[in-house]
Amino acid sequence: MRALISVYDKAGVADFAGRLAGLGWEIVASGGTAAHLEEHGIEVTRVESLTGFAELLGHRVVTLHPAVHGGILARRDLERDLADLEAHGIEPFDLVCVNLYPFDREPSVELIDIGGPSLIRGAAKNYEHVAAVSSPEQYGDMLAEIDREGSISLETRRRLAADAFAMTARYEQSIAQWFAGRLELAYGENPHQQAWFAGDPAAIGEQLHGKALSYNNLNDLSAARGLLAELAGPACVIVKHANPCGAALGATIEDAYAAALASDPVSAYGGVVALNHPVSATLAGRLAEQFVEVLSAPGYEDISTLQTKPSLRILRGGEAGSGLHYRSALGGLLVQEPDVGSDELELVCGELSDDDRADLLFAWTVCKHVTSNAIVLAKAGRTIGIGAGQMSRVDAVRIALEKAREHGHELAGAVMASDAFFPFADGPKFALDAGVRAIVQPGGSKRDDEVIEAVREAGAAMVFTGRRHFRH
């Protein structure tokens, strides 16, 4: 048996090739892959020994040769194909293992892979005779089947071919979109509206699984990543309709997800979940139990559990977005600088513990990413109630308190953040009566003294930041 291996992402490939070699397979590899395998003590036949050519044109031409592609595309059940192999001294391949240059992460002309897609597409086309392995996540299953059966079944090879063509299709699409400067989406805010993403598709990240992304998916994803980028340590943000319905810090990413979900599990149904640490197998199992529209994380320990959810859009990597912010208005564009930077907390009444101050900073950070008028209740590094997008600030307070009570959160000792000043003392009084012990707000109202006095009478603390954070 004979395997051709040519990979950019070398995670796990030495173990994969070593196991195949231990089972008696010949390993053929190109350039950097060959060097990597040799460093791990694996005997390798280099591609240039088949082709008679070293790498050409600065690595642009490596595997594009009949001695390689003839061995991949030959049909073993056709005498004329076998005769061609014999006439030219070409040996067939039984497995081709390829992954591609990371064009989606670093789009440039030199990261447009030519040889890699040709190899994997050739193997997938000839799936009746060749296994096309296109992802490190497939290595374990392939080795297990070879160990168990002695070969790779036709059914498995057909499934691998489907995965390979899906991978190269996504790859080619990302290149086409980069050249065109836009990404066509499934639809806009509503299914009858056509929509595009006019920007660098690499910012979205690599889609590993699920349905096509929609306008609303990307709008919510942008909101989730924007908040997540401001949180330090293991953190999770769950967004629904462009507003966080749960955000939390945790000792582990599993703890952060559990706390964010518990904030408002009803609203989290069908939301976008963004995590700043890789997803463990344990967390993948928990996520698979929920209805999630989009999942964004730096990586995945075991994606197979999540792939049992056919509609779940799984993204790896991507960016929070930076630079100027744009919004259409009156047939033109409103353009503004991003709302970035931290604010100083000025204690105007009461006393704060270190835990109070940490919760106030957390609530203030989350509040900046909630649609105005915005109120955020937090406790122990997690949101417990959010009031968003209200015309009246006091209504936003009522909604946040109702949300906290609805989901059984203890309000005594919680903190509250308001994205703009309180024009009257009524909103703070509702929160203080419920047990809130510290409030952060910009200040600047004509009635600041009344608000401060209400907080002082309740024996609570008030912090001013001097800067509001409207979000519309």
Report what the structure shows.
By secondary structure, this protein is of the alpha/beta class. It has three domains: 2-177, 3-Layer(aba) Sandwich (Rossmann fold), CATH 3.40.50.1380; 183-333, Cytidine Deaminase, domain 2; 346-464, Cytidine Deaminase, domain 2 (3-Layer(aba) Sandwich). The chain has 15 helices and 21 strands. It has a six-stranded mixed beta sheet with strand order 8-13-12-11-9-10, with helices on both faces. Helix 6 (115-125) packs antiparallel against helix 8. The protein is elongated, with a radius of gyration of 28 Å. The model has no long low-confidence stretch (mean pLDDT 92).
Write a concise synopsis of the structure shown:
The strands form 5 sheets. The protein has a 6-stranded mixed sheet, with helices on both faces. The chain is elongated. The protein has 15 helices and 21 strands.
Key phrases:
single chain; 472 residues; alpha/beta; Rossmann fold; Cytidine Deaminase, domain 2; 3 domains; 6-stranded mixed β-sheet; 36% helix
Mean pLDDT: 92
* Total DSSP E strands: 21
First CA to last CA: what distance? 62 Å
Radius of gyration: 28 Å
What's the name of the CATH homologous superfamily of the largest domain? Methylglyoxal synthase-like domain
Strand content: 15-25%
Report the CATH topology name of the largest domain: Rossmann fold
Shape call: elongated
Q: Class by helix and strand content?
A: alpha/beta
